[in-house]
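Researcher: Structure prediction, please.
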Amino acid sequence: MKKLLIALWYVSVPVLLFAQKAPVKFGKIDDATVEMTSHPLDTTASAIVLMDYGNTTFRYLDNEGFIFDFTRIIRIKIFTKDGLEHGDFDFSYYNSGVSDEKITAIKGFSYNLVDGQVEKTKLNKSSIFKEEESEHWDNIRISMPDVREGTVIELTYKLTSPFKWNLQTWEFQSEIPTLYSEYKVAIPEYFDYQLLMSGYHRLLVNEKKTTSGSISIQSKSRTGGGASGGSTTKTTFDTQKFDFRNFNYRWVAKDVPAFKVESFVASPSDYLSKIEFELRGTQYPNSVYEQYMGSWSSLNKSFLKNSKFGEALKSVGSMKAELESISTLDSENEKIAGLVNLVRNQMEWNGRNTRYVNTTLKKAWNDKKGATADINLAIVAGLRRLGFKSDPVLISTRAHGMIRDQYAMSSQFNSVIACVELGDKLLLLDGTDRFLPIGVLPKQDLNGKGWRVSESAPGWIKLTTSTKQEQTLAADFKLSATGELTGTIEQTSKGYAGYAAHKNLKMKGEDEYFKAVQEKNEGWLIEDHEYNSEASNSEPFISKYKIEMNENLTLAADRIYFNPTLNEIMSENPFKVEKREYPVDYGFPLSNSFSFNFTLPEGYEIEETPESVSFSLAGKSGSFSYDIKKEGATSFKLVAEFSIDKTMFAQTEYAELKEFYHKVVQKCSEQVVIKKSGQ
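Model: Predicted structure follows.
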C-alpha cells in the first residue's frame, strides 16, 4: 500500500535591492543639527522634518502566506513653542477579527542642547499608548520625551501586515517643511498594484528597477508501510523552484515646502504630494489572475450582495408598525418626510461615517444609535417598504477626499446616503442631522459625486446643492458728538447659515449662544437681545440686538471719522498665498446683504463718503456692490451685497479670486468723514 502526504511551503530567496541602506544611522545625530535655530527653506517654520525614510518589503510565512514589513525612520527639529505638537505621533493599524497588523520595534530619542552638550533622552514604554479607534482599527499614540524648543526628535518603528490591500501610503509633504523624504518598496510580480501619485512638488528621484528572486516549493511523500507491517516506510522530498521578478521602486523628494491649508479646501490630503497603492489583482504561480479592482458594474453587484449593505435592506427591523401609520399620509412628500423624521427621532448619529451597517439594521434601531450606514440604509429600507423606488448612494465625505472615477475602488467611499425617485426628480436624503430640512444634505456630503447602488439604475449622481449660505444684516444707528454709536442690528440667516444658527442655539441653549455672540463681538455693549428660538429649522433664524459701540470711530478736532461697514462685511482677505496649488471649494453658494442707516449728531454734516462701486468675477461667478447715499442733511445709508455663485474655482482662477477679495476688503476699509456744520 502506498501513502502520499504532501506538505508545501515557500522559501523566499533573499533578493539584492538597490540603494538598500537608510540615508541616516538611527541613534546618531550631529551637534550642528541640535544647535540649528532655523532653516533657510522656511525661516518662519515652527518645526521641520529633517528626514523621513520608509521601506516596504514582502516575505512569506508558512501559515499566513505573504505579508509585508513597513519600516520607518523620521527626524524632526522643533524650533518654536508652536512646533511642540510634532513631538506626538499617532499611527492607525487594522484588525479583521481573525488576523491583525502589528506595530513593533518602536524606538525613539529626543536630543537637546544642555550646557553646550547634546543630551540624549530615550523613549520609554510608558509613553506609548494603545487605543481602540473603531471596531476594526486600533491606534498607537506616542509622546516623545523631553520635547522643548530646540529639540531634535528621532523615531523608528515597524508595521507588519498580512493585508496586501493596505500597502502604506507615503506622504512626502506635511504641514511643516521637509528637507528629505524617501520611500522604497519591493513588490513581487504576483501582486498587481495601481500606483496613485498626487501633489504638485516634483520628485528628485522616481525610479523602478527589476531584480530576480525565487520561490521554492518542497513536497514530501511517503511510500511503503503496508497493512501487514512487513515493509518499511520511505520518505522522499521533491523541490520545485519558481523564479520571479521583484519590482523595486524608489522615490525621493527634497526641500518640500510646508503644505499651507488655506480657506475653502475640503480635504487637504487630496493635494499633498504623496504616493498611494491600490491592489488591482494577484497571480500566483500556476494560477489564473484574480482581479480585485474591477469595473463599477462589478463593484455595484458586490455591494448589492453584501450582507451588511444590499442584503441588509431586505429587513425593516422594528419599524413595521410605524410604517403602517406613515403609509396613510396623503402625499408622497409627507410620506418621505414622515419616514425620514421617524428614523431621525429613533436613531441618533454616533458621529461615525461608514459604508456598511455595523451589525444589523434591527440592532441599530433597537440601540437607538448608529453610524451613517445604519441610519441611511434604514431610510432606504423604509422607503422601499412604503412603495418608493429608493437606493443607497455611496459617497466620500469632504474630509475623506475626492473620488477618482477612473478607478473602481470601494475604498474611495467612506459613507452612504439615500436617494428616492419623486416624479422625474431624484431627492437625496441624509438622516444624520436632525436640524436640516428634508432633502438638504449636510455640508460634509457635498463632495462632487456619489455612486448609486441599484439593480436597475446604477451610476454616478452629482452631490451639489442650490441651497445657499445666506445672511442679511440691517442696522440702524445714531452717532453722538462724543463718538458713540447706539442703535439696533437685526440679522436674518437663511439656508445653511440658518440651519447652523438654529442648531447652535438649540444645542447650546440661549444663554451659551448669547455668550458666544458677546465673545465674538467684544466691542459691542449689548443692552438687549432677542431670537426667534421657537421657529422651525426650515424657517429663517432671526437675531436682534440693541447695542452701543465706540469702535471704528476716530475723533479729531471738529471731525469724526468712522467705518460705515462696522467691520461686518469683510475686514480680512482669507486668501494669503501668492500662488495656490489646489482648487477653492466653497461647498455651497454664498449670499450676504447689508443695510446700514446712520443718523448724524445735531450740528454735524457729511463732508466725505466713499464712492459707490460694483464689480464681479468672470462669468458672474461672484459679485460685490457698495452703494452709499445721503438721505437728507443729517443721515445717510449704505447698502452692500456680496455673493459667490460658483462653488468650485480652479487654481487658474485663484489670482482673480484673491484680487476680488482684496478689492472688497479695500473698499470696506474706507471711511466716512463728518464735520461740524459751518466748518
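Model: Confidence is low (pLDDT under 50) at residues 1-19.
Researcher: Thanks, that helps.
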